[in-house]
Amino acid sequence: MRLYLVNPSNPLVSIVHVKESRWNRYRVWKPLSLMVLAGLTPRDWEVTIVDENLGAPDYSALPRPDLVGLTAFTSQANRAYELAAHFRGLGVPVVMGGIHATMCLDEVAQHVDAVVTGEAEGVWAQVLDDARHGRLKPRYDGGLADMDAVPLARHDLLPPRYAFGAVQTTRGCPLNCTFCSVTAFNGAKYRQRPIPDVVREFQAVRERHVLVVDDNLIGTRPEHIARAKDLFRALAQANLRKEWIAQATINFADDEELLALAAKAGCRGVFIGFESPTPEGLREIGKKFNLLKGRDFRASVRRIQRHGILVAGSFIIGLDVDEPGIGQDIADAASRYGVDNLNTLFLTPLPGTRLWDQMKADGRLGLDVFPEDWRYYTLSFPVAQYKHLTVDAIIAEMMACNRSFYSLPRIARRVWSGLWRRRKPLISLVANLSYRSNMRVDRKAYADFQRHLASRGPAGGPTATR
Ligand code: B12
Ligand code: SF4
Q1: Is the pTM of this model over 0.70?
Q2: Which residues lie with the beta carbon below 6 Å from any ligand 2 atom?
């Protein structure tokens, strides 16, 4: 039995179409979901993983599969449906799972033979068995997996063309921020994989650099922090010679022992969601941790950096409290906090989130011709109607933000400060230049987006607020 597992591309985010920047090699990340599915697949299936972000193959030149499994974030849904139509046209059954299939089950069911909602561990064997016997059901639900059941991912199945390998150590998040799908998808309970499994996983990764995909590697409670410390000790003891980056809350900075152990285990960078430069903004999205009284973000960032760990800060633009000038405010706040990189995203109502329910109820989904418009749900386009900012205005704010934070003098200051503090200035320089060079690509993407809106006419989309 031959199985193709495909990660569909979205031309708006795929490097295939943004060759303009050679730094984009550092922006293609392994589709871990498919590597995990392959790990769950019995060895009598011949499995091929196709990551279209590396370029779509000529499918008609490949041997005909017996089953196709598609994964998709919402932004990849359109291409997933094209692929489903292609394979179903050949009589090959198609199964789709992942976040979009879970959040938009009814839509997805119209395009494929079987939809798998939730996590796959508990249900994939059944799907394969049913496919083998020609009795696929239209719907399977994996629910939340037992973390002991997460297999070793098939790190061997993808070509060595990625800058980073990928590993997952925990799932779930109790915080349920309004804009985020993680609590709805992976549950509010913070679930941890057994530490020996994680160490084995790191050992199986071929790349020297690794992205730990956990939404929050350190969790929210003292026992989660204790587990993170145990994990770091085990990774350090295994002497893996890997360097990794991860996501965490700002609480990462609050425990010197945790930071020292993380650095010893190979941590070289951390993504932190600051989300908004104002307490009103943080309250609006429910990011309670960042509201801690007396929290000094600059001191927190410095504490992390002192351990040789770079800090990338993420902010959202387009909250109801955001008024003209917010772009500059974010750039200034990020510079004040002293982060090494800034990633600013448009507030985007992703299906299944509290924000989606709210904006849908208020008639504020700007781009709402689905599935066509899903391709713009990448967080890099203003797809909603924003309270104080028209589409043109919010795009201008985003460009002002990036122009300011990634101005050459500010980059030079950051790299110099990294050099001074022995904090991997080269990585910081590459990352900063990568963002800077993408500003040109972004400008073109915004122009195309604005043309797309104009083609919808005055009644359609967020043009209504222009
Ligand atoms: C790592 C990651 C990335 C990596 C992507 C790596 C990759 N190629 O997959 C990077 C950094 C590139 C990325 C980018 C983006 N991401 Co992202 N990302 C994540 C993150 C943190 C972890 C995903 C992961 O690897 N999990 C580990 C694997 C094992 O779990 P899984 O993917 O859920 O797979 C399991 C099940 O879903 C299921 N399953 C999945 N696919 C399939 C297929 C079949 C056939 C079956 C049966 C089952 C199945 O089985 C798997 C095992 O249980 C998630 C948050 C999260 N917790 O999911 C956000 C998340 C997926 N990202 C999100 C978003 C919005 C994006 C972006 C669009 C925007 C952005 N700037 O962040 C971009 C653009 C991506 C694109 N190509 O369009 C949203 C998606 C929401 C949505 N409705 O689409 C999430 C949920 C975070 C959030 N804020 O809500 N992301
Ligand atoms: S944004 Fe981060 S902290 Fe908030 S719910 Fe999502 S994963 Fe949890």
Answers
A1: yes
A2: 173, 175-177, 180, 182-183, 215-216, 273
